[in-house]
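Sample intake sheet
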Amino acid sequence: IDHPVTREVLRIYFSELLDQARAAALMPDTLLLGCTHYPLLRSQIEAALPKSIRVIDSAEVTAAQVAAAVQIAPGATPPPPRFFATDSPEKFRRLGSRFLGQPIQNVQLIELESSTAR
């Protein structure tokens, strides 16, 4: 993830985007990370943007809203996490550990019924 090629691709993409925004007099002040893998690139994304552009991680905002909805008080000890995957539990453990920054255990494989008539 933290690789010179990643940094260069981000630099190129954001340079083009920001040039177009300046030309249209529509400079953004905020960038919302909307895809699941973007938080893994957050530090590189922030480094590629001007300091005037704030980066918001939609996952953090979503987690805060879920915590409020289920009434987990700040600082309270949450219940142990449970993980479910519709694909390879091992792949989920590996990738999920990168997102959470800690090992993931006990991933349960679940099968979703197809909505297609059989």
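Comment: The mean pLDDT is 87. The beta strands are 30-33, 54-57, 83-85, 107-109.
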